[in-house]
Design brief:
CATH superfamily: Vaccinia Virus protein VP39
Number of strands: 11
Order of helices and strands: HHEHEHEEHEEEEHEHEHE
CATH class: Alpha Beta
Number of domains: 1
Distance between the termini: 42 Å
Shape: globular
Strand content: 25-35%
Radius of gyration: 18 Å
Structural class: alpha/beta
CATH architecture: 3-Layer(aba) Sandwich
Helix content: 25-40%
Largest sheet: 7 strands, mixed
Length: 263
């Protein structure tokens, strides 16, 4: 599947995604993933950052709230329109652009973020190379993806007699998926509400963990840290939807740095 078709799918998702995520229907993001991502970040106050695949801008605004001067891009004009419509907080430069051809000069940014989007892009290696190009030497890229090992093309919760998830069934880890379209709703959306909105249709481009490491290294970046967010006992009790991350992680967070070349 080419990038134009991928962009069309995300444009089709944008209105519903914005409405539902801002209504609290994305607990993986709000209760677990974004807090873990921000806790992992080095200090960014006073630095210039770029958020790739910003969607409706919630995560971008949280990074800006840490004191960074933020730009952000997304392939969906509707997502960017929704992001621009929120005018509280720090000023952010939201733009429509493709991550494989960033509209920025080399060494423009001190850091780059990408929240749960690279696994939905058809040429991740090119995106990582573009990120490395616009990073200044010594800058870092921090991104998150569906965990390649625990969210391969097939993942299913295994429940006990009481309906509690007790295991995760995974399969097809080595299957190279290039644009399979998954159809789904946020898990917290009630059945009657699902009748009122179209489901999300998201293209998937699965790569193994070793392929991700190879692509990061090929872009000239040095891996600095991995994090696999897991809900605490308290968070799992308060937000049962994310409790399955105590069995196996849903996401993998990676930070990689552009080396400073010594002459």
């Amino acid at each position: 599947m080419d990038r134009t078709k991928v962009a069309q799918y995300w444009e089709g998702n944008a209105d519903t995604w914005t409405k539902l995520s801002r209504s609290g229907h994305d607990p993986y993001r709000d209760a677990l993933h974004t807090p873990a991502f921000l806790a992992m970040m080095p200090p960014v106050s006073g630095l210039r950052g770029l958020d790739i695949g910003c969607g409706e801008g919630t995560n971008t605004r949280q990074v800006a709230g840490m004191g960074a001067q933020m730009s952000a891009i997304d392939v969906s004009p509707t997502f960017v329109r929704h992001a621009r419509a929120v005018d509280d907080g720090p000023k952010i430069d939201f733009r429509v652009a493709d991550a494989v051809a960033l509209p920025d000069a080399a060494a423009s940014f001190d850091f780059i973020t990408a929240f749960m989007c690279l696994m939905d892009m058809p040429d991740q290696g090119a995106v990582l190379c573009e990120a490395a190009r616009v990073l200044r030497p010594g800058g870092f890229l921090q991104f998150s993806i569906l965990h390649p090992c625990f969210v391969p093309p097939h993942r299913k919760g295994v429940r006990n007699a009481d309906g509690q998830k007790v295991a995760i069934e995974v399969a097809d880890y080595f299957a190279r998926i290039d644009g399979r379209v998954d159809t789904w709703w946020f898990e917290t959306l009630p059945a009657d509400e699902r009748q009122k909105v179209e489901p999300f249709r998201t293209p998937r481009f699965h790569r193994t963990l070793s392929e991700w490491v190879d692509m990061i290294c090929a872009a000239g970046l040095v891996i600095e840290r991995f994090v696999e967010p897991s809900a605490s006992v308290e968070v799992a009790a308060a937000v049962p939807t994310v409790a399955d991350t105590r069995i196996a992680p849903l996401a993998l967070l990676i930070r990689a740095r552009k080396p400073i070349r010594v002459q």
